[in-house]
Amino acid sequence: MGWTRTAWTRVTAVGGMVLVIGYAALLAVHALVLDPLAAVPGRSLRSIYAGVDAIGLSTTQDVVGVLVSAGTGVAMAVGVAVVGLRQRMPLPVVAVCHLALLAFGAAAVFQSGFFLGMDVADAFGVSGAVHAWSGQVLFTVSMVALAGIPVVLVATAVRTARGSRTAG
């Protein structure tokens, strides 16, 4: 006996939520730890944060900003999963919603770079660009998710068209 559509939808709802939460976690670690360390090699994270605070900028505000950005994605992913399961949304709808959240994650990565990333640039005279490998991973995941949306939609349309031909 194979899996039912409802079972696949549950797996997609929960699995998508877990992927978005993982993305958000990497976003936070990237913005608050990995990128500052890559931007100012040879310095400890503590000394980087102290250097930012020393020029009158607030690392506390930076941390809060990044965590709010990441937390927003987590809240939306949980919302999609809960609504998707409670309302028995079709599998493609749940999948596209989670893919869209991952795709929009690129904007969150970009935006979160303006918090601590720009403060590190100001404090240490480095560029405000992405320095750590994790930034490229996040942007790549977002682009793959964006490309996945039309794939899901086309596959759904083909499946629906095949089903209507065999039913009629």
Description:
The protein is mainly alpha-helical. The chain has helices spanning 5-39, 45-54, 59-86, 91-124, 133-167. Helix 1 (5-39) packs antiparallel against helix 5, helix 3 runs antiparallel to helix 4 (91-124) and helix 4 (91-124) packs antiparallel against helix 5 (133-167). The radius of gyration is 20 Å and the shape is elongated. The model has no long low-confidence stretch (mean pLDDT 93).
Keywords:
mainly alpha; 168 residues; elongated; 5 helices
Fold topology:
Layout: H1 5-39, H2 45-54, H3 59-86, H4 91-124, H5 133-167
Helix pairs in contact: 1-3, 1-4, 1-5, 2-4, 3-4, 4-5
Structural class: mainly alpha
Distance between the termini: 27 Å
Query: The biggest beta sheet, please?
Result: none
Oligomer: single chain
Q: What percentage of amino acids are in beta strands? A: under 5%
Gyration radius (Cα, Å) is: 20 Å
Number of strands: 0
Short description:
The protein has 168 residues and is mostly helical. 85% of the residues lie in helices and 0% in strands.
